[in-house]
Write a structure and sequence with these properties.
One of its GO terms (molecular function) is metal ion binding. It is built from 3 helices and 8 strands. The chain is α+β, with helices and mostly antiparallel strands.
Length: 133
């Protein structure tokens, strides 16, 4: 793994959360995007080398909507950038980690993504990300 790529935060109200994080961080999001496959609106803030992703579910069956309904707003996942997502997925499976998807899928911010089940990572949802080339 190369580095922490971003921290994902689940929110109820996208506009309200973006305004709050603008006030908190002093910068506008550098990118907003709708990810249809996941049913989420996303926005990305960058402070120094750190990125924060805000996620709002757009339909009741989306993972983010379910998360907010069950747990409330807050940290949803931590994402790690990897050089080769396919090799990293195989390595983690070999180490006994449970992956939530068998193949990487297109995520926000021009990335391929795969998630590691929280049960196999001390209760933390881990996202692997690789820049789409």
């Amino acid at each position: 793994m190369k580095n922490v790529e971003h921290i994902g935060i689940a929110v109820k109200d996208f506009a309200e959360a973006n305004a709050l994080y603008f006030k908190l961080l002093g910068v506008e999001p550098y990118k907003t995007e709708y990810v249809e496959s996941e049913g989420v609106n996303t926005s990305f803030f960058k402070v120094g080398g750190t990125k924060i992703e805000l996620l709002e579910g757009t339909k009741p069956e989306s993972a983010i909507s379910k998360f907010v309904e069950k747990r409330g707003e807050g940290i949803h996942h931590i994402a790690f950038e990897v050089e080769d997502i396919y090799a990293e997925m195989e390595r983690l499976k070999g180490e006994g980690f449970i992956l939530l998807n068998e193949q990487p899928k297109k995520g926000a911010d021009n990335k391929l993504v795969c998630f590691v089940h929280p049960k196999s990572a001390n209760g933390v949802l881990v996202e692997l990300t690789q820049e789409i080339r």
